[in-house]
Amino acid sequence: MDIRNIAIIAHVDHGKTTLTDALMRQTGMSDGSVSMDSNNLEKERGITIYSKNTSVFYKGTKINIVDTPGHADFSSEVERILRSIDCVLLLVDAQEGPMPQTKFVLKKSLELGLKPIVVISKIDKPAARPEEVKEMVYELFLDLGATDEQLDFITIYAALKQGIAKLNLSDESTNLDPLLDVVLKKVKPASSAEASAKLLSAQPFNLAYDNFLDAAPFAGFMRGRSRPRKMFMCGI
Questions:
Q1: What is the CATH number of the domain that holds 61?
Q2: 180, 219: one domain
Q3: What is the pTM of this model?
Q4: What are the residues whose beta carbons fall under 8 Å from the beta carbon of 36, sequence distance 6 or more?
Q5: Which domain, by its residues, includes 6?
Q6: In whole angstroms, what separates CA 175 from the centre of its chain?
Q7: 182 plus 212 within the same structural domain
Q8: What is the pLDDT of residues 20-46, one digit of tens each?
Q9: How far is residue 140's CA from residue 151's CA, in Å, rounded to a whole number?
Q10: Rounded distance, CA 5 to CA 204, Å?
């Protein structure tokens, strides 16, 4: 099966979990009664605290999605996730524009050689200024030393609560297909020959203990191939 691994990054409350929930609803993975913010503390505060992953299926492709925290207190959690995916969706509020944590997560992504797909979210806000915010994002890329390839990013405009995404503000749209199509087109397959030929590399996520197996690290394959014996590997 064709697989894409992506993470959603942004400043707090710019729409990461809303996007993930909307993608799950559209692809039939959720009936709308389930949210990625499932922890009691997350429900109480209304913010994402723990990174969580889910998968959706679109046009015969499995898209693994990691929803990351947006608050600065959980920056290390985001850094850990960025090393295990192939592309990021950088969400920026169409009214607020780039914020401090936007700069942090984008900087880390660029340093790892990732080429973000920019999503200008909440274009349905009365004070939204999507085109101006797009220019602000471009300037942020420049300030952070993005390469020419990274500067040539694709921008998606979205009203996530309505489950709508579009390539141009003037386009008509009724769903998130334009965003999903860009993911399929621009994100390299996780099982590409180029990635498989590299030395095995994995990012640990958690450590469990079993009375029979001793320590059992859980990790996601970043690249390469191998058959580890004492390590449980679970791809994200």
A1: 3.40.50.300
A2: no
A3: 0.76
A4: 17, 20, 21, 24, 48, 52, 54, 67
A5: 2-191
A6: 18
A7: no
A8: 889 988 998 776 655 555 555 545 455
A9: 10
A10: 16
